[in-house]
Amino acid sequence: MWRRPVSARALRQDGVPGVNGSHRFDRAVTESQHAPHLPTAAPPPGRCGPRPGKHAEKKHSGQTGGRMAGRTTRDGERTGNGGQAGDGERTTRDGERTGNGGQAGDGERTGNGERTGNGERTGNGGRAPVVAGLLLAAGGGRRLGGRPKALLPHHGRPLVEHAARALRQGGCAPVYVVLGAAADRVRTAAELPGCVLLENPAWSEGMGTSLRTGLEALIGTDADAALVALVDQPGVGAEAVARVRSAYRSRAGLAAAGYGGGRGHPVLIGADHWRAVAEGARGDRGARDHLREHAASVLLVECGDIADPFDIDLPGDLGRLAP
């Protein structure tokens, strides 16, 4: 039986894609997860999908009808390339963008999809952050009758050994130790494996000079932050070090141990702050002025339940050391 040819106009009205560039039906399919996929339809410009004439259907997680589904960032904005914004940056919880595809916050993935051992954001091409320990141990113990604090006996060993061990066991590496008073005697008497020993010739001018010596030595290394501890605080151990160290978020970060709401040591200083802190470290002030200036950015990490930040400053304090 003779049949009348189907006109191109009829095809267009039926919504068959591919005739005179009509994609109205194809659009309806790709907008719905439940509509059938038409492998022969050419996807509209800018969409993912098989080319005209191809019959192999690819299925991907997050795709509907050959279209790549965008992801929604934490601030509610939608990205157009599967969760990435711009040139591969991601949007963080606070609306800022990271430069390596990483995201801020605990337990999130790094720019290469890996996590660090404790859930920290790396921000360094995927490597784990390097948090160096910086032990200030140069004091001469003037109020202790001229007994260098680093050499005070505690559990039968020089006090500097215990402080350096707390930094190592708390996850800091490398550990820098700033010596001053009786530096040669400390080198001989104390066992400080794996530590970088620095000498502060201006130690008598105050603790600030030791902080400056340590930070200036760290500038230019691959360390991302320095965790600063004091040699004369035997009540601050590895547990407090680890807790403050875990507060690392970025090279621009600042954190400090908190004791009942007050700020104490150890103090975590991101590498972006080192030069400014070193320049302002004078006498016994250390990083105090810088932390006050950036008080709104300092993360206070409560450690009063695991540490006691008493100082060994006066003869009466010596009784707090173990024989």
UniProtKB/TrEMBL annotation:
Gene3D superfamilies: Spore Coat Polysaccharide Biosynthesis Protein SpsA, Chain A (3.90.550.10)
Gene Ontology MF term list: nucleotidyltransferase activity
Record domain MobA-like NTP transferase: where: 133-295
Biased composition (Gly residues): 114-126
SUPFAM superfamilies the record matches: Nucleotide-diphospho-sugar transferases
Compositional bias per record (Basic and acidic residues), positions renumbered to this chain: 87-97
Domain of life: Bacteria
Region of interest called Disordered, as start-end residue ranges on this chain: 1-127
Protein name: MobA-like NTP transferase domain-containing protein
Native organism: Streptomyces clavuligerus
